[in-house]
Each structure stands twice: as structure tokens, then as C-alpha cells.
């Protein structure tokens, strides 16, 4: 019976929704028919036509009322009612566009911002590796006193740990290298001159991680064996898509890298790119093939001094992390003691005893960047949380103010017979509509915000240590969970505060709204809540504004820091000679060729090169006391500063614009045949020679038995890594690129080109010339100092930008909230103001009265907010540079700014109040 | 003519259903018939007829269609559905029970 019921009624209901006009017409026609028939009937009985019409109409009852009753019967269907409520809600919102815009925007911004940040945090911090039992994975890190850590261990350490520790069910080693010029056989292949990330892994890597291939097989322990004898490779799905056009028959093809052909034996499933979170691997090859990958090295990296492997392991089931830690540490200590040897001194033994090998749970993957960003992300989440709060309070204030304004309307509607439930339903619908609109805006903003944040986080310096992989990819997309949670928060706020007037009305009744009496007291009483909310908003705003001020000043300080070399008119060209497969001796000639070609470009003043990277963001770790060099005829003098050894071509200091305070530059004659020469930096000279002349003196390094290196020049100190270097700036020694120890070191080359005019105009030409000098030489980047700084300071800039954005947002929201409250209270006090004006108060006094209310709220907010701001500033103090966390000018500036802005916001209702005409005010009895 | 008695909404439904059980009618005809058949006792206020008709239609007990009436003018004719027929039986049974109970009370001997 039910189905039949619906069969009959559903078409009817749909029709009344979608064909409303037609349905109304029909009703009209039906009633007219009735009336006409009645008239006819009466006329047939002898009644005059005019009289007949009157009688018929009278007998019928009010036509419009009857139509309404008919409509009401239709409105019994809840779907129709909902539709009607929604359209009514939209209409009322349309009538208050500013309110709607502000509320929707507040909600949208709150949702969008929080979701974006949370999405990024999830991608970086919370996402788990797509492997089996990720909680059991650990990465190993050396902790060396006093405060150094080292993630890269030697092969010998690895094998011994693997064999002698029982607590790990498997231990694998890996590292990644950027390679280019990779050729793949088969359809749609060819040579790819772009970069691919090649991971060198021990055979058990995939087994330890617990990952299986989607096509073919993964590498296994059987792929470990004699060096150079197992040319197999596994590729990632992303690489297959990117380079091989998503071809399905990839397994079995040949991949040629540096002249060696590898058999592709497997493809990993999409989403698996190794355990290094922000460095997805494209190709995995067995450890046995590492020399074929790192051709620039003349020997296998199996010596205990070659520390280059990241270790990842799986803890045996049933073993706790603590037990595993203890066991691994014991083995590690044994290894270190063995290496110290039987002739170890007490000091050395003590040092060894202080070293630890720590296990870090890596269910979320290995991510040095995550650690670096941890504080920044925490600060960001706090800021965003605050803004969400501000947005919600703003919405609450606006809704309350609006509800208070609509008291009259509610009262009237109740008086003419609308049901309480109906009213509540209407208000609820309005709130939900607002919330949904806000949510839609929020979704759009969160998509935009997520991509903006991801871009900001991937920007950053490129590390350039012998070809190791450095560029970072970041895959964050809009996080559904975050979206749901924040949307729920915002929508709840909207709904709760939207319903507040209905709830209140149910308790108190709306009679006062109609009479106009008692309005002041109850309304003002309620608006204490509104005022409290505004105070909170202002407090939160000042926290964010102050944080923004600190970050902006930090950025400026960093950007303007004197770097020690001439910033203008210079280009840095980053290349990777190691990728050409040149032998160490060929590398020197490569340098020479490239520099000769570049020097010959018209407009180039000087061209040189170094094997270091300029402004790559690298902050040297705290070193332990060591001897950088020893001076002939003097006792050793250790120092805590890191020593930086750079190999440079002739005219380096001229090209860089680094003043030489004494001595000369290298020439081609300073090579491995002649006497060894060195140029030292000022800080080295000061440390070892005090104020005396050091040019011409002889020094020795490291394992030299005799001090036979002549100091030929002293250069000014420079900041090379990042403007944040500060007191930890390394002490530098420079050697010629043809020095006897340069062979292994000049595998990376950063050419420095000083130009006469704007360096950007020559960038393309320089790139061409470098490429022409050696076609196989990958030119990674050609940058000016500003480009480099932009990269290095990318995160600081991002943080400053975001903070400034949120500061502006929070302030705007606070102003709007304040406006709403002041406008409401002055509207309520219109009659009071009228009385005052009538009694002689000047316009200025009224203005002052209202303004002082606004200023009082702002000052209260600032008073509440400043202590919070100080606490927050302390939390982010280690990101600051050149400003302290309690910087007074910033705080005062923030307070003044907020005060000024809120005064403007309060000015509008204040001026309106001051212009109140006493007569109209007194007549209106609201 | 005596004043038409006020009808409870529920009985109006019953009357309409019964009318339509006999034949399809439009609103005007229903009102005429009711007056005729009851010897002018039942005079439905014309206006309250239409809300009742529409409500019955919403409930699925009657359907409507537009047809030319006797004077060739288009009018909305209602007819009873199968569901409506069942509802009619139910209402009739209710009415009989109600009126029997009332009669019983009224016939009680006054002291």
C-alpha cells in the first residue's frame, strides 16, 4: 500500500515544486470556474449579475486566504518546505549583502587556511609509508658529542651491524644520486638529458621495508654480490609515467646509465618511492653496481672512512624499541672500539664511549626536512588555529548582532501566528545556508592554499655535494580529514550562534521587542557576550600582528646582511662535471675549457669557479675542537670553528668581488707540480697569526708531516651558505683547482661570472657556452645572487608572507566585529543619544562617546593580547634574526596599528550617531 | 432555510469521498450535489471545499484531471482512487461507530 501511495503522490509533489507557476495558474482557474458557475446558477434563478457576483464571492470566503490554505496543504511535504525555507533564507541574506559576504568570507578563510596547513602537516609529518608494518621501521643516526649528528655511515659499519645485531630482522643501506643522460631502450624512449634520482640500495632494502613490486620483481638479497656484476634495476611507477609514457611492457627493457646497461626487472606500485619522504626515488640499483653509478669516483666506497650510507632497518617482532636501541648501541660501541684499535689512547676511548647510535622510529619515513621544519610548522599551526578562532568569533558576533536587530521581525511574526518551531527551523535553515556557502568558499581556498604552501615548502636551496640528490618534491593535496574537521567546527559555530536568538526568544519571549520598552537592558545584557568576543578578537589580532612584524623584520635583516662579496653583477652557474663520467684528471681540463669559453663572452669581466656552492642554505654544524692547520715553528692551536676547504680557479676572488687583504690570487702555475700554495680567510689569519703578516709563511694540514704549504694571500671573510650563518661561519682555506688533492673534489663546479652590466642579460649566453664546452655537462642552474637569496630565504619569506596575511586577516575580522558591536549598541541607544543632543550635547561629544567605547574595547583586547603575544614570540624566537622576541618597537607598532585601524572601524557608526536628529530619535521608540 | 450546520473537517472528507465514489465531479458540482442530496441541510462553505480537495489529492485518495465540463469550459474533475475507496470504507465505519455512540447517549432517559 505504501508504494502505491507514493506512486500517486510523488508526481504531484514534484510538480508542485518544479511547476509552481503552472500549479498556481490551475488553482486560480479552478476557483474562477467555481465562482463563475455559482454566478451562472444565481443568474438563472433571477439574481442580477452584479449581485450574483457579490454573493458568490461572499459565499466563497476570502479567495486569497483559501488559496493560502490550499498552499498550506501542499506545504505539508517537508521537501517543499525546505525548499521554501532555503529560498527565503537566500532572500534575506541577499538583503544584507555585507553581512553575508563577511560571514561567508570569515568561515571560508577559517576553513581554507586551516585545511591547507593541516594538509601540509599531514603530508610531511603524519602520512605513513605505504609499506608493511611501518611502525617497526627504524633509521639509524650517529650522535657524536658535543652536539653533532651524522646520518651517513660507512659500508663496514653497515655490514657489521647487519650481521651482529640480533634485534633487527633486517638492515638495509642506501643513498641517492642525481644522474642525467639516462637512455632507455624500446618504444618511446631515447636519451633523457634531465635529472633522475638513482637510489643505490642493498639487496634487502625492499624486504626490510616490506614493499612488493607491481610488475616484475623487486631487488633481493641475491642481487648483492660481486661488485659490478649485477646490472639490474627497479623503477618507480612515477618514473615509468614520466619517462616511458606509462608503457606497460617496461620489464625487460634496458636502461643505460653512464655507459652501463641495466636490465629493468621490476616496477614498484604507484605511491611507493622509497622511505626518504621528500626525495622520491626514480630508479633503484643494487649496491654492487654503485661504482657504475658514481663514475666520478675511482674506487669502490667500501672503506670505513667513506661515510655515505643511510641505514634503515626493521625491528624484530616481539622486541621493543628500547631493547633494540640498547642492543644496537652495544654492537656499535664494539665496532668503534675495534676501529680505535689496540693502541687507542684513553682520550680516544673516552670519545668513543660518548658516541651513540640512535634508532628513530620511521613509520612516517625519513625526512630531515620535517625535522628542520618542525618548529616552523608548529608556529604555523598555532597561527592558523588562532585565525580559525578569530573567524569563528567574528561569525558569532555578526550573527548575534544580526539576531538582535531582527528581534522586532521575530516578534511580529510570532504575533501574527507563525509557530515557534517554524521560526526556529527558518533560522536554522539560514544558518545552514550561510555555513554551506562558507564551506564552499573554504574548499576553494583550501585547494589554492595547499598548492601555494606546497610550492613554498619545496622552494629552497639545492645541496651540491658530489652529485648527491638534492631537489625536493612535495606531494600535498587537499586533506579530506582536515577539511571535514574544520568545516565541522565552523559550521557548528555558525549554527549555534545563528540559533541563539530563537533559543533566547523561546525563553524570554519577544514582547519587549514589540513594545520597545526594556529593550535597552536586555539587549545590552546580551551584548556583553558580543563585546567580550570583540575583546578576544582584538587580543588574538595583536598576537598575530606582532608575530608578523617580527617575521617581516627577520626577513629584512636576512636579506640585507652584508655577505662579504660583491652582490651585484655576478652569475653563479651550477654544473655537475661528475655526471659527464670524466676521470679526475679530465675534470681539471673540463674546468679550464669551460672557463676559457665563458671568459671570451663579451661583457664578461672575469670568470672563475669553485667546487663549493654559494648560498645553498647550508648551515655548518657545531664542530669539535680541531686543528685546521699548523704553522711552521708554532705549537698547534685548535679551534671550535668548522674548517672549510674550497678548491678554486684563478681569478676567483676577482670574479666574486671578495677583497684580498693581502697577497695574490692563484694562477695556472699553482698546480700539483709546483710548491703547494693556499689562500686563507681573515679569520684563519687572525686566529693563527694575530695581527702579524701571514703571507709568505708556511703551514701544514691534516696528515702533512711537514709544513710546506705557502700562504700566498688572505681574503676577507664571506658568508657562503646562508645569511643566518652568524658566529658559526666556517674558517676558510682555498686551494687551487689543480692542487694535488683536488682530483676527487672538483666533481662539482660552480662557475662564477662577473659581468659588466646586468648579469641576467648574459645568462642564456653563458649557459650556451658552458654547454658548448662540454655537451654532456648538465647545467643545473644559472642564478644571480638575488635568485639564490630568494631560494635560501624562501622559507623565511613564506613564513613572513603567511604571518602578514593572517595578521591582515585577523585585524580585518576584528574591525568588522568591532563595527558590528558598536553599530548595534549605538542603534539601540538612538533615543538616548537624541535626548543628549536635545539637552545640548555637541556632535563632537557624541562622537567622542561612541569612539571611546570602541577604543575601550580595543585597549582591553590589547591588554589581554600582549602577554599572549610575548609568550608566542618566545616560542618562535629561534627563527628570528636580528630582532629579539620581546622587541619593543614591534610590539608598540602592532598596538598602534591595531588601535588606529579599530578607531577607523568605530568611526563610521560614531559619525552616524553624532548626526542623529533628536526629533526623529525621540519619535522612534526603539 | 435553516442555517447550515458546521461540519467537522473529518466529515467533510467523508462526504467528498462518498460523492466521488458515485461519479467524477468538479468542485462546484460536489458542492451542488451535497446541498441537493441533503435537502439543503448540508451547505458546505465553498471556500473550505478546495483545501479539503487538495489535501485529499495530496494524500493520494483522489486524483484529478482537466476535462471540458457540460458547458464546454475546462474544469478540474476529481475521481476516487483505489486507496481512496478503502479510506472511504474506513471513514464510513468510523462515522457509524461515532453516530451510534452519540445516539445511544442522547436516547438516555432523562430523569
Short description:
The complex is a heterodimer of chains A (926) and B (111). Chain A has 926 residues and is α+β, with helices and mostly antiparallel strands.
Protein model, in words:
- Helices cover 53% and strands 15% of the residues of chain A.
- Chain A has 28 helices and 23 strands.
- In chain A, the strands form three sheets. In chain A, strands 15, 16, 17, 18, 19, 20 and 21 form a seven-stranded mixed β-sheet that branches. A six-stranded mixed beta barrel of chain A has the order 4-5-10-7-9-8.
- In chain A, a hairpin with a 3-residue loop joins strand 1 and strand 2.
- Chain A is elongated and about 135 Å long.
- Residues 460-470 of chain A have low confidence and may be disordered.
- Chain B has helices at residues 9-22, 27-37, 46-59, 82-106; strands at residues 25-26, 62-68, 74-80.
- Residues 1-5 of chain B have low confidence and may be disordered.
- The radius of gyration of chain B is 16 Å and the shape is elongated.
What class would the helix/strand composition of chain A place it in?
alpha+beta
Mean pLDDT of chain A: 80
Q: Quick one: how many beta strands of chain B?
A: 3
| Count, helices of chain B | 4
Largest interface: A-B, 32 and 27 residues
Separation of the first and last Cα atoms of chain A? 57 Å
Q: What is the mean predicted local confidence, pLDDT of chain B?
A: 82
Strand order in space, largest sheet of chain B: 1-3-2
Stretches of chain B where pLDDT is under 50 for at least 5 consecutive residues are: 1-5
**Residue share in helix of chain A:** 40-55%
